[in-house]
Design goal:
The chain has 170 residues and is α+β, with helices and mostly antiparallel strands. The chain has three helices and nine strands. The longest helix has 24 residues. The two termini are 39 Å apart.
Length: 170
């Protein structure tokens, strides 16, 4: 009986240790995009803004041999950069897509029916599966599609912050 208990205890410790090591070696890398919402943008019409990554490419440089795998979107947030003290009350919905050279566009995060007066908001993550081919390819592009409830009275700058997570490839 002691042997069964001891074996179970050792197995439990080993499994917990493996999970701890896995979380320690997991990588998280950021991408940010800036979106200008001009005063003339009409309400109730989807508008698109595209930007090409520079900071994600510095991590991998379009290197398909980068020693990572299982890349997923782990966090997505939209924030008002300007005007100072601005909020998201004019924004009705937002969708964020990623793509790169040779890959199709994939919706990674979105939020509909936004009713927040806050200056920032976490977006809902879409289960897109693994994004290894998108992130490792050159020219990572983020396209943001937004719709306003009403026209803004001044230009508004939004920051889209995406975090990707991965694990080391063997």
């Amino acid at each position: 009986m002691k042997n069964i208990f001891l074996t179970a205890a050792v197995a439990s410790v080993a499994l917990v240790s493996c999970g701890t090591v896995q979380s320690l070696v997991q990588n998280t890398f950021p991408y940010t995009a800036n979106v200008l919402v001009s005063t003339g943008v009409p309400a109730d019409k989807e508008v698109s803004s595209t930007s090409t990554a520079s900071n994600v490419q510095t991590w991998f440089g379009g290197n398909n041999d980068a020693k990572i795998k299982d890349v997923r979107i782990s966090d997505a947030k939209v924030s008002v950069v300007s005007p100072a003290g601005g909020n998201l009350s004019a924004v009705k919905s937002i969708k964020v897509y990623v793509s790169s050279s040779g890959t199709s566009e994939r919706l990674v995060a979105s939020r509909s029916n936004i009713s927040s007066n806050a200056g920032s908001l976490n977006l809902d993550l879409n289960d897109t599966g693994f994004l290894d081919s998108v992130v490792k390819s050159s020219g990572l592009t983020v396209r943001t599609v937004y719709e306003l409830k009403n026209q803004t009275t001044s230009d508004m700058n939004l920051k889209i912050a995406l975090n990707f997570s991965s694990v080391p490839a063997k």
